[in-house]
Design goal:
Oligomer: single chain
Distance between the termini: 53 Å
Radius of gyration: 22 Å
Shape: globular
Structural class: alpha/beta
Low-confidence stretches: none
Largest sheet: 5 strands, antiparallel
CATH topology of the largest domain: Rossmann fold
CATH superfamily of the largest domain: ANL, N-terminal domain
Number of domains: 2
Strand content: 25-35%
């Protein structure tokens, strides 16, 4: 039976009760205060009828109340399901319909509570710790179920080899806490080691620069587009970054040219790595190892096994390109309500990433392409089927195909191609606006082309590779 992860956080709080756990513009909470507020919200959840094993959705964003609610849910023995603040009401409704939570917690539910007594968690539980949602290839959201054991081992890795955290660190939290990179790298791993978390609700270059200088931030987790925007911002010229010892990238690929420019301009190394919602950072460079290769994303972290296979699933010799399979103690257990999709990606403990990769003789992993359709835009996963489904709701659209194209800042961008129904007309801007109104900001296409016909195979399958090259 897995130990409840919050026990580890409670132990950290007991070591440094008077140290600041969370700081933000206008306030702060020590570890002891965070524990007391979490204890009070634990009581509020129980009074509201929540119980061990329930699913509880958190629609809060990057705010101190998120940490309080998350800890309280785990103290209760329930499962937390954080929701992205950028989701539209319709997208949030789809997730809630799939999740069927016992409660939906918003910021105002936590803010008004007086601090209560520190409440320790009950016995170790086998219930899941987290359900994190990512878009589904079938056009509907998919919730990845993650255990307390997975969460513990992932954050030991984040706190250890990936970031080398100590209680003296101050970690910036401007990444969305509803996503695995921000949740683990910017919140849970720091709390686990007694570090201070500096909260920034929404990324903006001026706000980040002010937080780094004002809070003396030592570790800056981000995505490539954040580093790019800072480099292009006038705020960087006058910024005081002298406290920062490392930056850490994830979610979307961080191009070597960007990492090199960032280091030349700031003197700060970006520790690059690889992960996804279903698979917490199994590959990474290490904070204390300066060895890097421009095209590689790092090595397997301790406890993770890698395999490169051909289309039949047979292992390939070193250096050859094939699909990357990963066996990790921090992998998800399943998707919510999706046994078929679960069996497609999890086989005998191996997670089939859908990414094509090579592994060098010394263990460096290089991603060379993608076998499954998925667009990584600025750290967010976008599945073409979801965008295509929205385009097809427009009365003028007959067919739709969505692909990812390379983007210097975001890694990839979303591009759409459509054909129109006979006798109708629709301009690209109109169709983009149609998507913008119905999808989260990171999902809608930035470029759309109207074609007379989409390229197809003899069996009628749309040839997206041709579209991507056009």
């Amino acid at each position: 039976m897995a130990e409840n992860f919050v026990r580890r956080l409670e132990a950290a709080a007991r070591r440094v009760p008077d140290k600041r756990a969370l700081v933000w513009d206008g306030g702060a909470l020590t570890f002891a205060e965070l524990e007391r507020k979490a204890g009070a919200f634990f009581e509020a959840l129980a009074t509201a009828g929540a119980k061990r094993g329930d699913r509880i959705a958190l629609a809060i964003g990057n705010h101190w109340t998120f940490a309080v609610a998350l800890l309280a849910v785990w103290k209760l023995g329930a499962t937390a399901a954080p929701l992205d603040a950028l989701l539209t009401p319709a997208e949030q409704a789809d997730i809630l319909a799939d999740l069927s939570p016992a409660l939906l917690v918003r910021r105002e539910d936590v803010e008004g509570l007086a601090a209560g007594r520190a409440k320790r968690s009950g016995p170790g539980v086998g219930d899941p710790a987290l359900i994190l949602y990512t878009s589904g290839s079938t056009g509907r959201p998919k919730g990845a179920v993650l255990s307390h054991s997975a969460l513990t081992l992932a954050n030991e890795s984040w706190a250890g080899p990936v970031m080398s955290l100590t209680s003296e660190d101050v970690v910036l939290a401007t990444l969305p806490l509803a996503h695995s990179l921000g949740l683990n790298g910017a919140l849970l791993a720091p709390l686990l080691t007694g570090s201070t978390v500096a909260l920034v609700e929404r990324f903006a270059p001026d706000a980040v620069v002010a937080a780094i200088g004002g809070r003396r931030v030592t570790v800056f987790p981000g995505v490539a587009t954040m580093f790019r925007r800072l480099l292009d911002s006038g705020a960087l010229a006058a910024a005081d970054l002298s406290s920062v010892r490392i930056a850490v990238s994830g979610a979307a690929p961080c191009p070597w040219d960007l990492a090199r420019e960032w280091r030349e301009r700031t003197g700060i190394r970006i520790v690059r790595g690889y992960g996804m919602t279903e698979l917490f950072r199994p590959i990474s460079y290490a904070a204390n190892d300066a060895t890097e290769a421009p095209d590689a994303i790092g090595r397997a972290v301790p406890g993770v096994e890698l395999r490169i296979v051909d289309d039949a699933g047979s292992p390939l010799p070193g250096g050859q390109t094939g699909e990357l399979w990963i066996k990790s103690p921090s992998a998800m257990e399943s998707y919510v309500n999706a046994p078929v999709e679960t069996r497609e990606v999890l086989v005998d403990g191996w997670f089939h990433t859908g990414d094509l990769a090579t592994v060098s003789a010394d263990g460096l992993v290089t991603i060379v392409g993608r076998k499954r359709e998925r667009i990584l835009r600025g750290g967010y996963s976008v599945f073409p089927a979801e965008v295509e489904a929205v385009l097809l709701t427009h009365p003028a659209v007959a067919e739709a195909a969505v692909v990812g194209t390379r983007h210097p800042e975001l890694g990839e961008d979303v591009v759409a191609f459509v054909t129109l129904r006979p006798g109708t007309a629709a301009a690209p801007d109109e169709l983009i606006a149609h998507c913008q109104q119905r999808l989260a900001a990171f999902k809608y296409p930035r470029r759309l082309t109207v074609l007379d016909a989409l390229p197809k195979s003899p069996t009628g399958k749309i040839l997206k590779a041709r579209l991507a090259d056009s």
